[in-house]
Amino acid sequence: MPREKVVRIWDERGVIYSPKRWRYLREKRKKALQIMRKLAVFDPLLYGSVARGDVRRDSDIDIFIPIRAPGYLIELALEGLVRRRKIVMATPWHLIKGVIEIDEETTVTFPLIEPTDRELDFYRWGGAIDLWGVKTKERAPGVNKKLILIIPTERGHIEREVVGRESEVARVLGVSTDIVTERVHVLTRRDAIGRTGIYINEEVPDWMSFEEALKLIADRDPDVRRKVRERGGI
Length: 234
Fold this sequence. Notes:
Blueprint: E1 13-16, H1 19-38, E2 45-47, H2 49-52, E3 61-64, H3 71-77, E4 84-89, E5 97-103, E6 106-111, H4 117-126, E7 128-130, H5 131-135, E8 142-143, E9 148-152, E10 156-161, H6 166-173, H7 177-193, E11 200-203, H8 210-220, H9 222-231
Parallel strand pairs: 3-6
Antiparallel strand pairs: 1-10, 2-3, 2-7, 4-5, 4-11, 5-6, 8-9, 9-10
Helix pairs in contact: 6-7, 8-9
């Protein structure tokens, strides 16, 4: 799928959803709910476009567990659904995460070290709702990859530009202004120079736990080892 570019819309714009878009949203929410129910003990969050509502046919279903828990317990809760497992880390300064792929469009992500408040803000930035919110068909405001704030309405959503409105966006999302400023910098820089890759993106073998795989990575990488020691991983 082509990378989405940052756009400028200047003024507020209202979007009314077509019946097809509402159908996509219902289908993806139903699928997310089935998975989140299995993970209820871990307080899962649905985040991104399926939480906001501005979905397309190819939108991913992204579920995040905001607490650190043993990987095997999460896998047990998802027994029979796990297709692929990975450890990812965007840069040496970012959260180390376990990723469980359910299918081509659905992933469950969880921290392998203690997450900071700022790292949790990342998910609220994109729009996030809990299990109860999915059950009651809530939709959350959030910012898409084009740096447009999506505010849900009864008929669709309202779009507002983020650049130049950082403090306002932080208030709407309930996050720090720092995370808004950081994401604006990252996404506009990525737009200018292109994606620079990801620091760690390693598949975890079937016979190995997430924690064992992380230890192997930490043994060879001092940046990962330092982060694990600081945040209580493994």
